[in-house]
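Help needed: design a sequence for this.
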């Protein structure tokens, strides 16, 4: 049973979409035989024993001796992988796939096995045998090497719904026995939300990703909307499982960010992610990529909408009225490119970037409502500054209200101007939004 409190989210940026940066090498070993096996010969890999039999019995790890050495080695390969051949004939029907290695090839005299995960840990997987005419070249697998390029960054989050969603299609075949014979996977994709509380410096990478741009400057930095698609491998690490489990979502892009500022609350939001999803063969593992390093996690304080929301201006003038809520959404309209011959998407493309949101004002003056009625453009900006003095400033130089209403909703209520706004391209600044990060 796994606890959400012990689940870790990490990510690493991909240089090639869908490919996790990893130059680790998987340890390998070769079993070499000169003649066919005899009954009760054993091959041990790690802690799992494979027993060769002339008469097959249904015990996990039991393998049928074939008519030739080639056939026996092939049966052993299939048993290690629990794939191919005829279970119950070539190897025991109760056999389960080896959890640490896979068999990658066999021929007339050799069987090659390889650790499932890269790194030096694979060099400790023991390989022994009792067969008189077969032996491994060493007592353990060898040549595994750690990655030198895999640095994970941890995500600060309050909850998540990232999932691998598979569409299964039932067959429409009509049968005289009225049964359904199969359920076929026809498409799959990863996606979901990661909820967060805004804190300074904690989401530099994903702010770049949602704005499709790159931070510029040193010290005080700026970020504007751009055209660069960034993708990541996002990892969910379930620490309290035995063994621990890692789910790797490759080809993950930030589709949108939602940021909410309301009276009496911490500034919170969500990242909406879209992803190729989990590779069925390599995406779920019991071990971290060998040689992985882990960047330090920011420790800045979450910002609030009570004292940390500052300097709200409209048309360059500090707003003197009262605002009860402010929301910002940035959406990239990313398209997944689906192709026949592939269960998951093979690529992604950026669409139109949209900047939208909500504002709710106490209706004590009518200037903003007039902007809505007349369709007047306006600019606005606001800042979030934490208690240590770290500051984000959001500037949108050209906006319009999309909708608005001023209603007296009932007794003992305040009249509010509730509006939805949209950010538009500004030719003077060549952008829709600028984010400025100023450290304390």
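Sure. Designed sequence:
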């Amino acid at each position: 049973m796994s606890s959400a409190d012990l689940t870790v989210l990490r990510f690493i940026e991909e240089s090639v979409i869908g490919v996790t940066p990893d130059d680790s090498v998987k340890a390998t070993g070769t079993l070499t035989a000169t003649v066919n096996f005899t009954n009760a010969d054993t091959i041990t890999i790690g802690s799992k024993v494979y027993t060769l039999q002339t008469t097959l019995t249904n015990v996990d790890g039991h393998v049928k001796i074939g008519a030739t050495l080639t056939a026996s080695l092939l049966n052993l390969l299939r048993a290690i992988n629990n794939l191919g051949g005829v279970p119950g004939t070539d190897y025991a029907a109760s056999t389960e796939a080896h959890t640490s290695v896979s068999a990658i090839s066999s021929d007339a005299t050799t069987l090659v096995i390889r650790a499932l995960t890269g790194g030096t840990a694979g060099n400790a997987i023991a390989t022994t045998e009792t067969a008189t005419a077969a032996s491994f070249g060493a007592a353990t697998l060898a040549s595994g090497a750690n990655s030198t390029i895999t640095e994970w960054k941890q995500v600060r989050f309050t909850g998540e719904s990232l999932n691998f969603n598979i569409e299964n299609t039932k067959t429409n075949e009509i049968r005289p026995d009225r049964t359904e014979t199969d359920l076929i996977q026809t498409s799959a994709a990863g996606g979901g939300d990661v909820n967060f509380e805004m804190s300074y410096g904690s989401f530099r990478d994903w702010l770049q990703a949602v704005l499709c741009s790159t931070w510029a400057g040193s010290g005080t930095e700026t970020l504007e909307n751009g055209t660069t698609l960034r993708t990541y491998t996002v990892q969910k690490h379930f620490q309290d499982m035995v063994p621990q489990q890692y789910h790797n979502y490759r080809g993950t892009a930030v589709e949108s960010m939602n940021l909410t500022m309301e009276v009496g609350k911490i500034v919170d939001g969500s990242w909406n992610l879209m992803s190729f999803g989990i590779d069925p063969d390599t995406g779920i593992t019991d071990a971290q990529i060998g040689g992985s390093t882990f960047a330090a996690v920011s420790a800045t304080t979450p910002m609030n909408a009570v004292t940390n929301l500052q300097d709200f201006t409209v048309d360059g003038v500090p707003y003197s009225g009262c605002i009860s809520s402010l929301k910002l959404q940035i959406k990239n309209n990313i398209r997944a490119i689906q192709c026949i011959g592939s269960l998951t998407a093979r690529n992604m493309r950026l669409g139109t970037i949209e900047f939208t949101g909500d504002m709710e004002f106490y209706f004590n003056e009518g200037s903003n409502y007039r902007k809505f009625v007349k369709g007047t453009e306006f600019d606005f900006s606001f800042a979030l500054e934490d208690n240590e003095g770290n500051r984000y400033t959001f500037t949108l130089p050209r906006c319009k209200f999309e909708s608005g209403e001023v209603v007296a909703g009932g007794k003992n209520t305040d009249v509010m101007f509730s509006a939805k706004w949209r950010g538009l391209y500004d030719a003077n600044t060549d952008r829709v939004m600028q984010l400025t990060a100023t450290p304390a």
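The helical segments are 69-81, 204-211, 367-374.
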